[in-house]
Amino acid sequence: MKLLHTSDWHLGRAFHRVNMLGAQADFVSHLVTTVREHAVDAVVVSGDVYDRAVPPLAAVELFDDTLHRLADLGVPTVMISGNHDSARRLGVGAGLIDRAGIHLRTEPAACGTPVVIPDAHGDVAFYGLPYLEPALVKAEFGVEKAGHETVLAAAMDRVRADLADRAPGTRSVVLAHAFVTGGEASDSERDITVGGVAAVPAGVFDGVSYVALGHLHGSQTITERVRYSGSPLPYSFSEADHRKTMWLIDLDADGSVTAERLDCPVPRELARIRGTLEHLLDDPDLARHEEAWVEATLTDPVRPADPMARLVERFPHTLSLVFDPERSPDDPDVSYARRLAGRDDREIADDFVAHVRGAGPDEDEQAVLQEAFDAVRADAVVREVTP
Questions:
Q1: 186: which of 98, 167, 242, 260 lies 20 to 30 Å off by Cα?
Q2: In 142-276, which ranges are continuous DSSP H helix?
Q3: Nearest to residue 349, comparing CAs of 380, 374, 382?
Q4: 32 in Cβ contact with 71 (< 8 Å)
């Protein structure tokens, strides 16, 4: 069976101030063409179909058109909700849409109920694990501690239990939206840290033929059977070095996996350039970036006059301007920036306590701080997904 694995469409999202809806529509057309040209047997979309819980109307219209075009192909499609989606909204009409061969899996309770698609070698069971917000689903899975690994392990227990009751040799595909250990993040994914831990080990998914992951925006291989497709389009300059692709997965009769990366259309190249303003304007080696979307980091010790206006004369698609002046190592601004670099919210809070009190938080205080951060995060998720 040939599977096309994609994820993280983020319909409705812009790239800085650039409306990406046209590029997203081009990707959908490319997806439909790829399904037809490669004789794909099933399409899997591993979450973050939309960029936010209440997407703009134009994004909803594009998604509606996408569903019709996929249904017209007669190729089954399985989709799950991601942490950017509203599971309830995305799942509206799922029962009816099922009849058209589009299977929306947004309910955590249905993790162990697969979509079964047969081929010449028997059945392939597709299990949809939508994004599982630990604080919201721990009761459903009967776990005491809300954590990503705990709830995913419980969901996979249901998957393996269902698979054990099926005919020997039944192949299986799991769609999941999570941060798996070994994956490389970018700046455009929303933080899903709970209890100070975001990543789950790949071993949680043992026992199935293929795991189609979503959430991280770079295409990557965790193991031969566990892969991220990445987003089909860039959504931050941290993705400048990404090759945007989908995975074409060939699932053999014995469950072995062969994978091929298929390129997605690129609306415009990304470039990150750095130096003084005069250097960026004069360096002939930068000519190759003149038609790219550009993030320019200026290192001038003193901020120059009208830097953006001057940059766009040479790089008309400059979207981001960053100031990182070269300073002496003993400059107080440098030392403060270095203290904050690479530190998360919890670590910054710990440092603040130490600065104010003269000693960092003890073990009990760290637990209280973490509970506070988790509560704020969970409350934000509830407010976003509640109609």
A1: 260
A2: 148-164
A3: 374
A4: no
Three-state secondary structure string covering 310-344: HHHHHCCCEEEEEECCCCCCCCHHHHHHHHHCCCC
Residues in the chain: 387
Distance of CA 20 to the CA centre of its chain: 17
Q: Check pLDDT > 50 for residue 124.
A: yes
Residue 88 near residue 385 (C-beta atoms within 8 A)? yes
CB 35 within 8 A of CB 279: no
Banded model confidence at residue 192, pLDDT cuts 50, 70, 90: low
CA distances from 224 to 16, 238, 243, 350, 379 (A): 34, 25, 19, 39, 37
Q: Is 168 exposed, middle or buried (0-12, 13-18, 19+ CB in 10 A)?
A: exposed
Confidence of residue 194 (pLDDT cuts 50, 70, 90): very low
Contact status, residue 319 vs residue 15, Cβ threshold 8 Å:
yes
2-263: CATH class = alpha beta
Angle between helices 345-357 and 363-385 (to 10 degrees): 140
DSSP letter (8 states) at residue 167: P
Confirm if 94 and 119 have CB atoms less than 8 A apart.
Answer: no
- pLDDT surpassing 70 at residue 345: yes
Please state the φ and ψ torsions of residue 67, each to the nearest 5 degrees.
Answer: -60, -45
Domain coordinates of the chain in residue numbers? 2-263, 270-323, 332-385
Tokens of 149: 């690994």
Dihedral (Cα; 300, 303, 309, 314), 10-degree rounding: 0
Instruction: Give the pLDDT confidence of 52-110 residue by residue, as tens digits.
Output: 999 999 999 999 999 999 999 999 999 999 999 999 999 998 888 999 999 999 999 99
Residue 302 has a CB neighbour count (10 Å cut-off) of: 6
- pLDDT at site 359: 73
The CA distance from 130 to 107, in Å, is 7
